[in-house]
User: Fold SAM-dependent methyltransferase from Microbispora siamensis.
Amino acid sequence: MADDAPPPGIDARVPNPARMYNYFLGGKDNFAADREAAEKVLKVAPEAPALARRNRAFLRRAVRHLVAEAGIRQFVDIGTGLPTEGSVHEVAHEMDPGVRVAYVDNDPVVLAHSRALLSGTAATTVTVRGDLRRPEEILADPELRSLIDLSEPVAILLVAVVHFLTDDKPAELVARLRESVAPGSHLVLSHVTDEERAGDAREGAAVYRQASTGVTLRSREQIRELFDGFHLIEPGLVPLDDWRPDDENLLARQARRHLPTWFLCGVGHAP
Assistant:
C-alpha cells in the first residue's frame, strides 16, 4: 500500500496511528505522511519500534494465558489495528483451533485488510466496524453476535487503544463493556504513560495530535481505574516486559532494564 493510491475515502495526507504502528513494526501498509510522523516520534523515542514489538509480545502472552490457564475460548479485540504476524486468532489457534475471535476497528483501511487476511478463517473469526466510544453498539453487532456468545466468558482486548481516547471518560466506557459480558470474562489492556521521561512522552504525544487520532497520556492511577470492577491477576499493573515473561524474552528483558517503559499493562478478571 505504501506507494499505491489510497482507497476511496482515505486521506493519505493525514497520518494514521494504525499505519504509524505498522511502520514501527516494519510493515509496508503505510503512506508517506505516516512514515514522516513516525520518524518525528522516533526522534524523541527511538525505542518506539521495540516498544511496538514488546506490546505485541505482551498481547501474545496474555492470549496464551487466557486460553491455556483461564479456559477462555472467545475474544473481542477492539482497536485491533492492521493485521500483523502473531494476531490473536493465530496465537489462540496454536492451542485450540476452535477459539473464536471478533476483530473490531473503526478504520476502513484496517477493516479492508483484516477481512482480506481472514477470508479463510470465517468459521472462527469475524471483522466488524465499531468504535470504543459506543461500546454497546460493538457488542450488539449482528456479525459479532453470530460468532461470540456473550452469555459465556469472553476476553475483551484493549491493547494500545484506550490512549487514543481523549475526553470520553474511558473508565466509564470500559465499565459499560464489563457490564455487558458474563462473569468470568477478562480484560487485557495496555496504555502509554508519562511516568518516565514526561517531557519526551508529551513531545511524542504532540506528534499524534497532527494525526487522525491524538494520544492522551495517563498516570498509573488513571490506568488502574480502567480495571475497576475487575480483579487484576498477578503480577498486576506492570511494564510490558514484566507481565508473565517467558524464557524467550528473559535475556532481552534484562538488557532493557535501563530503558523507559512508556507502557503499563495488565489482565483483569470479572468475578
